[in-house]
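ok so I'm stuck.
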Amino acid sequence: MPITEYRFGLENAATLRFYGEKEVSHAMALLHYENGGLVQHLVHGLKYKGREGLGVTLGAWLGETLLRDPDTGNVDWVLPVPLHWRRRLKRGYNQCTGMARVVAEKLGAQTSERLLVRSRFSHTQTHRDRAGRWEGSRNTFRVRNPQRLEGCRILLVDDVITTGATLRACCQALEAVVGKEVLIATVAVVP
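replied:
not stuck anymore, here's the structure
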């Protein structure tokens, strides 16, 4: 497995995707994602082949890694990157939900699929460039009951950081929350 050894306190490829992003204090990823590699097969199995159990396994690994990171600190909420209800209906599950639940359990944090929601459907961004991905993600998410997250450390969990557009859009929605700190943890990062 191409393990990254990225931690929250270190400058790394995950953190650099969000450089200058005022909403993100730390970012990390477990694995390097390479086209045609083992990690791509794992992620595709999780997202497109109905292997929902992989999310639990990867979430446990992610949670254990975060527990060993001295910069994780106390996380109040673990939020999965949401899917639009139409995509979730077609897929049958959100691949990030199982990961987020297990991570929250490991960190002793709360989790919810209902606080950060995808309010606009967008087509797959797999073949879009950086600018196209941001345009397709911008203003896609919203926060329900932002007062529940006020003053909290929020960990966003996603499967892969490609350009960071989806996670940036989540952070854009979280701008409505007063006094929060946002951290990002993913299974993989594209170099």
